[in-house]
Amino acid sequence: MNERIKILHVCESIVGGTGSYLCELIPHQVAKSGAENVGLLVPENQLAHIEPQVSAAMPTIFTFKRPGRPLGSLFLVERYLRSIRTFKPDIVHAHSSVAGVVVRLLAIRRNFGIVFCPHGWSVDMKGARYIKNMTAGVERALGPIADKTIVISQYEYDRAAEIGIPMDKVQLVLSGIDPQVPTIEPAEWNDERLRVLF
Q1: Model pTM?
Q2: Residue 46: HSE in the Cβ half-sphere, 13 Å Cα cutoff
Q3: Tell me: the pLDDT tens digits for 176-186?
Q4: DSSP of 131-195, one letter per residue?
């Protein structure tokens, strides 16, 4: 029996690593459960940043206004609450710190599972020591709320233990790379200097 799980991905931003992560994840979930069972909540001003593979998979897209991070977070809360009422997910997958805080804080009387992926602990961002301590406290308090916290590197896993996240809820899933190498025309390089690809 092929059980179709309904999953809603919640992203405060999809620029950078989170977008790449979704590019590997969403097409596989759509293939397994169907496009109507995979939702993606993203800022409306970042729709152009959705990777072509994600767009081609045609998940259900929900958007919220994000004029800036503080005000955008309020719009995210409102749209997230509306999305879970209409989409009725089995699992909500929160990506990065702001979405992780929103989803876990609003987990009262939920009837769905919560997965959180920090995509790099916010504790490790540059900033004043008191902000890092406060952020670590928030992660410790909210850590038990997620059914699973997925970390994508050994460093993130070790850091979760240092921060004080309940390790029985932390799962290391190394970021994968599609074995199919994309066909891309090589860039022209008319220069004798050493070429380094990062």
Answers
A1: 0.87
A2: 23
A3: 777 787 788 88
A4: HHHHHHHHHHHHGGGSSEEEESSHHHHHHHHHHT--GGGEEE-PPP--SS----PPPP----SPP
**112 near 85, Cβ under 8 Å?**
no
Check residue 127 and give left, alpha or beta (phi > 0: left; psi -120 to 50: alpha): left
Q: How far is CA 12 from CA 63, 81, 93, 183, in A?
A: 10, 14, 12, 31
Number of Cβ within 10 Å of residue 140's Cβ equals 13
Would you state the structure tokens that stand for residue 172, as one six-digit string?
């290391």
Q: Which is nearest to 38 in space by CA: 83, 89, 111?
A: 89
Distance CA 127, CA 131 (A): 7
pLDDT of residue 1: 40
Q: Single out the residue of 169, 145, 147 nearest to residue 157, CA to CA.
A: 169
